[in-house]
Amino acid sequence: MAEDTNQTIQNTISLKSDSEARLLFGSHDKYLRMLRDAFNVQIVARNGILKLEGKKEQVEKCTEGFDYLLEIIRKGRHLKQEEVEKIIAKLVSPSLEESGEEGGEPTILPQPQAIEVFLKGITIQPRTEGQASYVQAIRKHDLVFCIGPAGTGKTYLAVAMALSALKAGTLRKIILARPAVEAGEKLGFLPGDIQAKVNPYLRPLYDALADMMEFAQVRKYLEGDIIEILPLAFMRGRTLNDAFIILDEAQNCTIKQMKTFLTRLGVKSKVVVTGDITQVDLPSGEISGLADVQERLRGVNGISFIYLTRKDIVRHRLVQDIVDAYEKIIP
User: Fold this and answer.
1) What is the secondary structure of 153-216 as a DSSP string?
2) pLDDT-derived band of residue 186, with 50, 70 and 90 as boundaries?
């Protein structure tokens, strides 16, 4: 008789001291929240005991993740976010190879290949092994999820691949979407009409286009609806054929929104979903659709999950030092 992996179970983990708990949870409970969101489990910490509750398979994987972290701490080392990300990626996709792509067979790391965009003489190159695997996955699959921290090129490379497909004529339209989730400042308090209110959320997508196309061409394609940049809510009810569709900041989608978005996929279309499951701005208690979808769609043929880490950050060299500084526990 097959084991029921959907049954709800509880598990407990005993911690040796308050100091060990602080190291394990990270600054402002960051590491605890990363595991909670990655595996969709409820976690309660009280009196030196961690109580985990959720689906059997997810609770077991989350428990294994905490065991890995505790092993590092008990060897006298401080945890780093990159280590937590790697452990989560390994547990979410057990067959994950060093290339960062989920798959049954070992993957030979691809050589970086130039991505042709619209600016004459300009090509976009993947700059890390993880980025090269990401580009390879987009070329191979119709639906790709790329999960990783800020600065790893998730959105930038997806936009480059979309423009390359448009230039080559393999797709006729680009849709760039983002959830307009409020993070501190209320939409209603911002000046202007609805387009002016949502533009700040969409600005990173405009910036990526500006690096790869002349301004006049960007404007022409926007006015002709060859390229659309819009809030996620505006996609409801549409079916998109012959389109390259990018959903950015997908960690801020609810489960329902993620389902609605993914079912927009039409004939001859390609979808790339990007996000960082450690930076969720949804209301407390709301499960991220990006965290949830990893369990639902894992193993489905034609879908690829790519996990980038801090090794793939390609912003200014100081960014890595800044991230490290914020990871330190301040006495």
Assistant:
1) -HHHHHHHHHHHHHHHTS-SEEEEEE----SSS-GGGSSSSHHHHHHHHHHHHHHHHHTTS-HH
2) very low
